[in-house]
């Protein structure tokens, strides 16, 4: 995709803004070298109960693993299951991930040291009766529900090539249905069925504030990939926001959670096949987050009820929460937020300048990008620049 004149100009506006930043930004960048030591302290969430949808792989699995590590009872919900014989074929996950099932996720939790346990739930989040049956099972077995994480998402068509970023009139209903069925309607119905039990939990378990986390993305704030995708993510944000208004009187909090670029099984396999760059618009997957990084964010939020009450209805960016609370990814890194110059410049601006100039930028520029968040008003003004 060629850079439009408007976005081309915005690229240089960013550089102009950079030139006006004080030297303290660069001093801070030099002095805050990313640690390679895992500084995450696992919170104690024993006795709490969670439902995580889409938990057989990807971000949902990463969240389920970290909640289990924190001592929670986790109902691991997804379609892919050994017991039913159904395995999602929407994405090629590679030979090492042929068993991305609810049972495998549950086994990994149950094999951990500690008190966390997992119950695999083969189910289709697009089936309202199966959602209701899951919540009834949780009520009968545990009598409480402290967290609902809506991470199920139907893989859109043409994800593996550049047509995923095509014009909306060429994508039509299949893209719309994929982005709004499971990911949006499924989240809404999961919340509808879960809230009565969460209200009972808030009433009967003194001081407990149950949490609903809707897994969304930066596509809710700025044009990303295609029209249908962005509309779905903006709607997910609004779902969290509007639910918060009605649930505040019941002491239940809601958030819309933004992971960054995530090294899911499917994305890593796309990168191995050489398809990632075209589908993503040239994003650097090596800078990405692990699925467990989002799990650490959810666990940390559940341990901070005052924080969830304060942020209820808001968008919470995983990388920005990590910096605020001081936890790292599983490899000890603290990946930058997508609206941080540390992400924007290396992924979009520097490659375009080098392409147009035919020369590499000096290290004193590329190695000293300031740790600075673009305000949402600027970040949301349009798509980031991309190139062919």
Description:
By secondary structure, this protein is an alpha/beta fold. The protein contains 15 helices and 7 strands. The longest helix has 37 residues, at 168-204. It is globular and about 65 Å long. It starts with a helix and ends in a 9-residue tail after the last helix.
Name the helicity range. Answer: 40-55%
String of helices and strands: HHEHEHEHEHEHEHHHHEHHHH
Distance between the termini: 5 Å
- Helix/strand-derived category reads alpha/beta
Instruction: Categorize the overall geometry.
Output: globular
Question: Which segments are poorly predicted (pLDDT under 50) over 5 or more consecutive residues?
Answer: 1-13, 19-35
